[in-house]
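Q: What would this complex look like in 3D?
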Amino acid sequence: MRRLLFVVPALVFVAIAGFLAIGLTRDPSTLPSALLDRPAPDFALPPLPGRDDAGFARADLGGGPMLVNFFASWCVPCRIEHPIIDRLAEAGVTVHGINYKDKPEDALAWLAELGDPFARVGRDQDGRVGIDWGVYGVPETYVIDADGTIVHKHVGPLQPRDLERTILPLLESLKR
Amino acid sequence: MIAELGHFALVMALGLAIAQGSLPFLGAARHDLALMRLGSTAAVGQLACVTLALAALTNAYVTSDFSLLNVYENSHSAKPLLYKISGVWGNHEGSLVLWVWILALFGAAVALFGRNLPLPFKARTLAVQGLIGTGFLLFMLFTSNPFERLVPAPLDGTGLNPILQDPGLAFHPPMLYLGYVGLSVTFSFAMAALIEGRVDASWARWVRPWTLVAWVALTLGIALGSWWAYYELGWGGWWFWDPVENASFMPWLAATALLHSAIVVEKRDTLKSWTILLAILAFSLSLLGTFLVRSGVLTSVHAFAVDPSRGVFILALLVIAIGGSLAMFALRAPAMQPGGHFAPVSREGGLLLNNLLLATATATVLLGTLYPLALEVVGGAKISVGPPFFNATFVPLMLPLLLAVPIGATLAWKRGNLMGAFRRLRLAVAAALATMALYLVLVSPQSLGAALGFGLAVWLIGGSVTDLAARVGLLELAPGRTWQRLKGLPASAFAVTIAHAGLGVLIVGITASSTLQEERLLAMRPGETTTIGRYEVRFAGVDERQGPNYSALRATFETTSGGLPVATLHSEKRFFPVEGQPTTEAGIHTNLWRDLYFVLGDRTPDGAWAVRLYINPFVIWIWGGVGIMALGGLVSLLDRRLRVGAPTTAAARRGGRPDLPDPVGA
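A: Here is my prediction, written as structure tokens for the whole assembly.
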């Protein structure tokens, strides 16, 4: 009986090791995102006054791969990311902007200063559309395919290596 | 070229580790002196090789050699020198080199300083140490080569995670590893004892200094990590029950239990198989921590990159090391003779209670850490077990432990007298009760928890001091006699007083910072003034500042109290363009009684700034208390008895064993 007691630690460890082995087969870093691989949510946003588009709505999505970028003039990382968005637009990628919780005049001044790479810009002043998209904070960038499905989400400022490693290869594969 | 030299040195180290892990076993079984002595030579050689590898890798970091994949992925030429060096262990491969280097360091230390160990025992200990080294060197060479080249070499690196670019975190991993890996020595001692089937007082005496070194390093390492989390993560908290924090805390709890149970083995020759089990468990929990951090089964701010092949390799290592040692324990430990009997109320009884509570606490933390994983495995939801679980389970286990500490330390061996102990501690009892009463009456009648915490702290500090005072006969004997008794006390007696009083100081910090914290969350415009506690805080505004490899928004807060200036605090939001990540630097002003802790948040669209203001009372006492505990461990290391040869060694020497030189200090 006393002998059995000495086996207990080994048995407990076997159980733990079993759980760890099964745990290894799972990837913990994928946050369950309800929106990935689903059609983008419905929305219709007013334009920034003075910008020559009619706002940005769900109907503008689709027809080809494109990016949707949430930005704001008060957000420092957006400023850092902006040259990259410019570069993407120059390379012929369609990028739409959603101006998140911002004052229209600030946003326009910001775009005037840094350049305006966006095909369309919608004004999400109360952040309601951001909630539907599941925005954690700005900037965030979504990759949309030709059917209007969200295929990828990037949180935080885009960096050159994100373009090279993820965004550009993904857009390339969506074109085919 | 230097990198290839480093790689080659690692291969050499592996060869030496394999020799160290096999030949001394053979030598000990055949009484072959040359083979047994080979263990020491191999251990020193292994240290030399791994040192070379570590130096080669550090050189690559300092000279920004981006032709190494590891340097490219974790460094950048514009990084300050300190973080280039600390970048060596700020990633999986490099930290593994550090891990193995410290392992080799301990192996060589046993080889060089373990002169009073009988040769067969020393040979077996070093052989087990060699086996551990073999496992980790194989792991490194097969799955995590730090010297992998990158062709063509990029122009610059991708940088180190900015939250790791911090002086506190530069020294946290080496200290922590010193603790983790130091426990490998006690593990090897335990395995050698199981192989020989013999555990006695001299074994306990040999193990003690190694356990102490590991414990002190682990204690300081955890404290550094918690201090870093406090000022860097910007939440005003200092412990988050994060899986990786728990991974370092579990070995600490087990090592603390081991320190105490080894005393019982040393003095009373009992609790032997339990002590062996603790030695195995302490290192096993270190290994488990390594697995949790590196395999990617759990997510955490501290975890390294996920790689399944590494996970499988470490799990195999875990199964061999932990499974093997526990199987050995199941086979050999029952044969060990239980030692002398003791009454429940005795020093042994007190230490046993300490062990039971610490072991249960370790199991609780283990459960809380692995439960989310287990739930996911059996098909349940993704959950995380947070502070509420640990507060509800861990804290109730600690209360009786803390209550018992001063009593246990006062009781006599074999059969103690509870009433006598209380009589000896009557001043401490009175002080603790008075503290609780005063707190409830004068400060706040509702906060029973805070009163209990402060009472416990006074009980611990007062109990340690009054016990020491009673031992030397303070106020009862003539001052000269007291002085003589004081000089006659062994260092370990002071160590107990210091460590237990440090625990009390820690409890003051924990109680005050968790029950009396004041917090204000508000939006402020530049020029506005608000109040928190007895301080007026003026938000002077935000300016931009350029750091060596980041740009920052810096807020200035001018703090006054009753019109008198207290401090000007700067809180920053830093952005690291290379890494593309922001960090928050809280503005902190510390004195003995409180920390002012101000955090700058986001700018709101209308031009105000979100700010979080905290007053964290007594928070510095937390790290001060832990530091005092570690000091107690260091004082205990000075104890002369640890350096004097143990009784069996003397007997062996009389037997004319040629292989045993004079023990140091005898």
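A: To summarize the key features: Chain A has one domain: 35-175. The CA atoms of residues 143 and 152 of chain A lie 5 Å apart.
Q: Very helpful, thank you.
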